[in-house]
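PT: before anyone asks, these are the final sequences, not the draft ones from last week. 338 residues across everything. Please model them as a single complex and drop the result in this thread when it's through.
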Amino acid sequence: MSVELDDILNQANTWRQSGQDVALATVVRTWGSSPRPVGSHLAVNAEGRFAGSVSGGCIEGAVIQEALAVIADGQPRLLDFGVSDERAWEVGLACGGRVQVYVESVT
Amino acid sequence: MKPGFFARLLAARAAKRPAALVTRLSDNAQTLVDADTASGDFELAASEWAALRERWVSGQSGPLDADGDIFARVYVPAPRLLIVGAVHIAQALAPMAALAGYAVTLIDPRRAFASAERFPDAVISDEWPDEAMTRLMPDAQTAVVALTHDPKLDDPALAVALNSPAFYIGALGSTRTHEKRLARLRELGLEKQLARIHAPVGLDLGGRYPSEIAVAILAEIIRVRYKGNGR
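LR: through. Structure below.
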């Protein structure tokens, strides 16, 4: 887990050092079954490349889109994904869980 | 994230200090905690400091308040695994444990065993086990496994481990071998600590190959660390 964490943070740092804007998404709360624990990170750069995960792959696409918006306007966002959320069904969080993800720019 | 916080977070990790990025989700205010120092948009209340210190012990991120508004992403140094005996099982266990996030050190004074050729990615110590163990000083985030089958090497390492707060202590050997080992360690006055040794080592997965035993050992270390039930 820590090796993985360092890989994500180092990747974010490498992107920043090469002049790329980066956003960091973090799982801040989970309900029911959720594939990644609280604290899990997904780092995203302005080209949409990413490292890490905030789910088993279900919501990464949507989080990357939001991350690009965060990079564009600098405003952090608190995202909510769950089975009651139609959008979450679209992006495939069908495991019955609910997850909150905080997305912020890395400055 | 506030300007400068990311660089300070990386610095704390590089220096193996516990850190936390604390965010008030309702208004995006942020404070960075680097060991005993907090700086940023807001101060932590005494109760929040206490909650943060507990989270550093468990390594689990989460709220510091009852409302779930003050979220702490905690960063703790990697747990360590000290392997005594650069044996065949260790060749499988060292890379597996590294993948699982452990900082692995191999201890074996027999240089033919503890060669960089056999362990390309591990930190290797060729000190005597008791010297190495005393220098590396197991803490509550450290697991220790003795794999040499040789009492001259295993026993001194286990004696140091039993006098430390290591969260996991395992020793290779059959039930009979372990009985003899317990008798020797009892003579060293370690009677009260002996129940901490996991032996025969590892969860009972039924495997017999070195790689399978390594999986069983790593699985047991993870189970003990998170107090899982191992079913």
